[in-house]
Design brief:
The protein has 1 helix and 30 strands. It is mainly beta. Strands 23, 24, 26, 27 and 28 form a 5-stranded antiparallel sheet that branches. A 4-stranded antiparallel sheet has the order 3-2-1-20, with no helix packed on it. Strands 4-5-6-7 form a 4-stranded antiparallel sheet, with no helix packed on it. The longest helix is centred in the first third of the chain and has 21 residues. The chain is globular and about 85 Å long.
């Protein structure tokens, strides 16, 4: 009887394994950073099966530098590479995904800007990364912003050990893979690696389990938002590289198929449409206003008359307004209707709201609107002129009617101070 039960359990486990092995791999994309056949470095669509086709989207030429990571946000792909030959030089390039057109390049001169893997968090609209610290002797979890062609890294927490991959699921949960490395010999030896949950607010790491992989070269991980499956590119040495699927409940990483010419893939992500076909289309005419320098304002938008695929739609549809992944307002409107939704903040400053509609098919494309709450900082007076007449000096200037930060201003209430130099008399 025990033998029959054991056989039945084994057959059941085998069937489940076969089912997992034959489940289709979704379309993934990533940057080929190195290979044994000098494959063109650039953004590629990866094969979805053993021996499948590679489809290059656009080339990326790092020169003599090494590509470390990349991340896709909206319609832009950001890639980071480094050159240590003449000191630490970090390059960040932005490309239009649709055309491959280079948009801009930043240069940084500190290791603290170097990410080993990046992950976009759809919950709070931030990019998270496994970054080097300033002295290159440790790692840290951080967010990074590429807004306005700048690179702003904000540390969340230092991380112990060697971290090689980062991914984020649709609910905003971060997952990281950490290697156990023996550095006692002439060359580092990877003993094992493990999957962890990472708290996006504190950086606290919670062990899930060992992956069964020994990644010597940093790869990349991503979670397909449609299926919730995690994929990870693994390079145990310079002669092999392959795609794995990581079990988020146990940590085990199962090899799916090898990469041609031992191609090293970093900056991996799952290309997805802005919305499902039957989800609502994006809102239009969105704005946010905080009148008279107050902290209470209004987000206004017009709901579409169609779904994302262009099919006309009528009736009710839900809306959600968020800041940094935190919902601040929600409700129900009608297709084609204009809504004015009250919002409030606790202190003056610039705020960006994300407005989306949702139905049973999913979320609409996101629309961002920004506004300044509170009184702004007046601009400096323009056309300042000092003139001497009859033994006196008069000073004139144009009245200030705008602010440096976009905040509210009442020109009639602006006061001016004229200070004499060098004695400082006002």
């Amino acid at each position: 009887m025990k033998k029959h039960l054991a056989l039945a359990a084994a057959l059941s486990a085998y069937a489940l394994t076969c089912q997992a092995a034959t489940e289709a791999v979704p379309q993934l994309a990533g940057t080929v950073s190195a290979s044994s056949d000098r494959t063109q470095t650039g953004l590629w669509l990866l094969p979805t099966a053993e021996g499948g086709a590679w489809d290059m989207q656009f080339p990326i030429d790092p020169g003599i530098s090494v590509i470390y990571s990349g991340v896709a946000l909206d319609d832009v792909y950001y890639v980071t590479y480094a050159n240590a030959q003449y000191g630490t030089v970090i390059y960040l390039e932005a490309y239009a995904i649709e055309t491959g057109q280079p948009l801009w390049t930043n240069y940084m001169f500190s290791a603290e800007y170097l990410p080993y893997d990046l992950a976009y968090n759809p919950k709070d609209n931030h990019i998270y990364g496994l970054f080097s610290n300033k002295t290159s002797n440790g790692m840290r979890l951080a967010t990074v912003s590429y807004a306005d062609n700048a690179t702003l890294v904000n540390e969340i927490a230092p991380l112990e050990g060697d971290w090689v991959a980062l991914a984020c699921d649709a609910e905003g949960q971060l997952y990281g893979i950490r290697s156990d490395v023996d550095r006692s010999g002439a060359m580092p030896v990877v003993l094992s690696s493990s999957l962890y949950k990472l708290d996006r607010l504190t950086g606290e790491a919670t062990l899930i389990g060992e992956t069964g992989q020994k990644p010597l070269v940093t790869g990349s991980a991503t979670i397909d938002p449609d299926s919730g499956r995690m994929f990870w590119t693994v390079c145990p040495d310079g002669t092999d590289s392959y795609l794995t699927e990581v079990d988020l409940s146990t940590g085990k990483a199962t090899r799916l198929f090898g990469f041609d010419a031992s191609r090293v893939v970093v900056g991996m992500y799952a290309p997805t449409p802005e919305a499902a076909d039957e989800a609502p289309a994006a809102v239009t005419d969105a704005s946010v206003v905080f009148p008279d320098g107050g902290l209470d304002g209004t987000v206004t938008f017009t709901a579409p008359t169609t779904r994302f695929d262009g099919t006309p739609s009528t009736g009710q549809v839900d809306y959600s307004i968020t800041i940094d992944g935190n919902e601040v307002a929600s409700g129900t409107t009608y297709y084609g209707a204009t809504e004015s939704v009250p919002v409030s903040v606790s202190e003056r400053g610039s705020y960006t709201y994300l407005v989306r509609l949702v139905n049973d098919a999913g979320l609409s494309p996101k629309v961002e609107v920004s506004g300044f709450a509170g009184f702004g900082t007046p601009l400096a007076p323009a056309n300042v002129v000092a003139a001497k007449a009859d033994g006196k000096i008069s000073v004139s200037w144009d009245a200030v009617t705008a602010t440096a930060d976009g905040g509210f201003i009442n020109p009639a209430a602006v006061t001016y101070t004229v200070t004499r130099r060098p004695d400082g008399v006002a």
